[in-house]
Amino acid sequence: xxxxxxxxxxxPTNCLIGSLYIALEAASKEAxxxxxxxxxxxxxxxxxxxxxxxxPASFECILPIILxxxxxxxxxxxxxxxxxxxxxxxxxxxxFLAKPEKTSRHVTDAMRERLRNAQRRLIDKKTYYxxxxxxxxxxxxxxxxxxxxxxxxxxxxxxxxxxxxxxxxTVKANVxxxxxxxxxxxxxxxxxxxxxxxLQANSNSNSSPSSPTPIHxxxxxxASDGLDGPTAFGAGAWSTDELxxxxxxxxxxxxxxxxxxxxxxxxxGSKIDADKGHYLPARLTGTNVMDLFMCLxxxxx
Length: 301
What we know:
Domain MOFRL: 161-291
Structural class: alpha+beta
Number of helices: 7
InterPro entries: GK-like_C_sf, MOFRL, MOFRL_protein
Number of strands: 6
GO cellular component, one term: cytoplasm
Mean pLDDT: 76
Order of helices and strands: HEHHHEHEEHHEE
Organism: Rodentolepis nana (Dwarf tapeworm)
CATH architecture: 3-Layer(aba) Sandwich
Shape: globular
CATH topology: glycerate kinase, domain 1
Oligomer: single chain
Distance between the termini: 85 Å
CATH class: Alpha Beta
Helix content: 25-40%
Protein name: MOFRL domain-containing protein
């Protein structure tokens, strides 16, 4: 039997057909399709006009803003930065809600510095300060207009800012823990909720303007492949600024984070209101792009 050399297949060529940022842009566009009055962003630059739909009673406005596709390094630090940034956005929006005559020119140096510092901690050197200030002004303006028209009902969502992040940060596991049962996304959701509780506990009547219109913060974190880490039994988790209600719950959250048992906290259904936070059931998606994070700073009647 003669041995003949066979032709080898050419070496494979790697072609870039997508990126994390493209995935985030796609998420923003899909959100706008679901809600026709959403404002589209064009590479982080907000348009200066709001497109409305009728009837006014069904009006909603969500501004999706892509901040980064490189959410990496320590997840606890990143989650705390997300909470701080959303809290500063909330504070600035309250200023515009309480006094509609104010514009971006009325933003004080202290407000500006707090917002910029929170953003730098999250996305390093890149800053979109003017876009964020304009977003706060726009959603407050829309909410005030809807309230003045008298077409709202108690608890109705009026408008809000949705921050979009992508990436894969890390969680340092405690090797001594025997109850580790969590992943990056559930860890981020719980750490964000804990930081929001601390911010509310440390705030006082002089730190934020009074407004009868409430603003709530919701945080959503999901692994794109549907499984949040090798030890997790879920795909991620979501939380709100109302998830942790007292110091006892805050202590339990800290303990769960220290032992890398974030899912242990969310799985304790007897102590958690499902409307304020829960884990997301695991379901393989057949793809793996990144972890996706969304933070909604919403204005309600």
